[in-house]
Specification:
Blueprint lengths: L1 H36 L2 H28 L2 H24 L4 H29 L5 H29 L2 H20 L18 H9 L3 H15 L5 H8 L3 H23 L8 H21 L3 H29 L5 H30 L1 H22 L19
């Protein structure tokens, strides 16, 4: 047990380090390209180059995670992320054309497309079944921290150093991440017991046939799509709260603080007896808190709402990830994780677009309030369409179905 826990912590450290490096790249490249071009369309193309490979490669990436050694695949992807950072450092130092930056960002998107299913399917092969909820809780929290600390440190470093120096840091984070992944030791290869397991669509079919996983993903996807407010926080800070960049920094830090706090608290409370019911309540409360953010005109209240949102999101992520890891057959876990990555990853990107469009059409506060209300309606619809979710037993009792 002690050895399994040590391997689990090394894995979580590798994933957090990878997220940290990617956050540095994403922060530094936007600044560097803006300084180089002062072209907003170039900044928009950054997101396109990073998302497009995920859409194009998710089927093949999931299949690879079910065919190859997941530890070596994750380690290779971690190292490749660092090499993308080194490539960007060279491009920045030489003031290369924008096309070179975009090509490297496309490669980064390809790496992410492989890294996500490889690591998501690897964790259940390392962590004992009863440790998975705690492992997912800590993994989600450390990723949240990395997404705050990485951009913050990158922004401070850009005040002192040239962008190429900041990019070069990710060569170190990539190497460390790769080493930590590889150090988890031997992992049994996924079983292959059916001919159709080479079919990438099996992951998609599994999700849409599951009366537990599909509603859980639906809740998370629509909560992020409609009730996510991260993309509007600069506008909230400037137009509603009138607190400037310092207040914006407080708002950006509030959700991760809530997530980390809940991770600590969650590790000290008993396992949920009805996790599906908890998930429904959590997403409904997330919608209510989002409405509170839209109504608030006071920085401390808005920050408190965001802290609560982060805590609720941590509960949701832990339940959803542990549910997936417990009900999916190891032989197809990579392909299911790849589809999951597309659904949840795209909901973040589309959610940002939806928030911006809604704010432009309705106004910032009304858009946030409507988004929170939609999330509550979605909870009601899911509870009616999939009543099995509310009756779901404790996560540790879940087993994969007899057939795929």
């Amino acid at each position: 047990m002690a050895d399994a826990l040590a391997r689990t912590w090394r894995f979580i450290g590798g994933r957090a380090t990878n997220t940290f490096g990617r956050a540095i790249i994403n922060t530094a490249v936007l600044w560097d390209l803006w300084e180089l071009t002062h072209d907003k369309w170039v900044l928009a193309s950054v997101g396109v180059m990073q998302v497009l490979p995920v859409l194009l490669l998710f089927s093949r990436a999931g299949w690879l995670a079910d065919q190859l050694d997941r530890r070596k695949l994750a380690s290779t992807a971690g190292f490749a992320m660092g090499m993308v950072g080194v490539g960007l450092a060279i491009a920045s130092a030489l003031q290369a054309p924008v096309a070179v930056y975009l090509a490297l960002l496309f490669v980064q998107g390809c790496v992410v497309a492989v890294h996500a299913p490889a690591t998501s399917s690897l964790l259940p092969n390392i962590a004992p079944r009863d440790v998975l909820p705690k492992a997912n809780r800590m993994q989600a929290s450390l990723s949240e921290l990395a997404l705050i600390v990485g951009p913050t440190l990158a922004g401070l470093a850009l005040l002192v150093f040239e962008p190429w120096c900041v990019f070069a840091i990710t060569g170190v984070t990539g190497t460390v991440s790769a080493f930590l992944y590889f150090s988890v030791g031997h992992v049994p290869p996924p079983p292959r017991t059916a001919d159709d397991r080479k079919d990438w669509r099996i992951g998609l079919r599994f999700i849409f046939r599951s009366r537990l996983l599909l509603p859980a993903l639906t809740l998370d996807m629509f909560a992020v799509l409609f009730a996510g407010v991260t993309a509007l926080l600069p506008v909230v800070a400037d137009e509603i709260l009138h607190v400037g960049s310092f207040g914006y920094g407080i708002l950006r830090a509030s959700m991760p603080i809530g997530a980390v706090t809940m991770a600590v608290i969650g590790g000290r409370i008993p396992a949920w007896k009805r996790p599906g019911r908890v998930l429904l309540i959590v997403v409904a409360l997330y919608g209510v808190i989002t409405i509170g953010i839209g109504v608030s005109t006071w920085l401390p209240l808005t920050a408190l709402c965001l802290v609560l949102s982060g805590a609720l999101d941590n509960i949701s992520v832990v339940i959803r990830l542990t549910l997936e890891q417990n009900v999916v057959h190891d032989a197809i876990r990579g392909r299911v994780a790849a589809v999951h990555n597309v659904f949840i990853g795209m909901s973040n990107e589309l959610g940002a677009a939806e928030s911006g469009a809604a704010a432009a059409l309705l106004g910032t506060a009304p858009a946030i309030i409507v988004g929170g209300a939609v999330a509550i309606v979605v909870v009601g619809a899911v509870s009616v369409l999939w009543p099995e979710l509310a009756r779901m037993p404790p996560l540790a009792e879940l087993q994969p179905p007899d057939n795929v």
